[in-house]
Amino acid sequence: MALRRWALGAALAAALAGTAGAQTQRHPKYDYPTAARADYVIGCLIDRDMKHEMLEPCACRIDVIADQLSYADYDKANTILGVQRNGGMGRANDLFRDTPVAQAEMAKFHRAQAEANKVCK
Description:
Blueprint: H1 2-16, H2 34-47, H3 55-68, H4 71-85, H5 91-95, H6 100-119
Helix pairs in contact: 2-3, 3-6, 4-6
């Protein structure tokens, strides 16, 4: 199990470095911190049962999202999602779900995700 985790980590590092294949050779419009890219790819893999064949599509998706959204906008959407997933506390959670600003941020993120899902099979 530890060897598999190491192998997955090595493959993830290679994909994030742009050496794992053609899809990761993209040069996104916006520069995201490596940790943010890795966090997205790891979450994407977890959502797909940690299947190694999903590494390339997951790495591609964050590149496509980085073409669509500035890191500041991505970070806002990620924060909103985190509060929504973790249940927030009463009115604070409502601010992250029901305000026009939160809805607009999430709409931008969902458009970028939809484009990534089309491009990265």
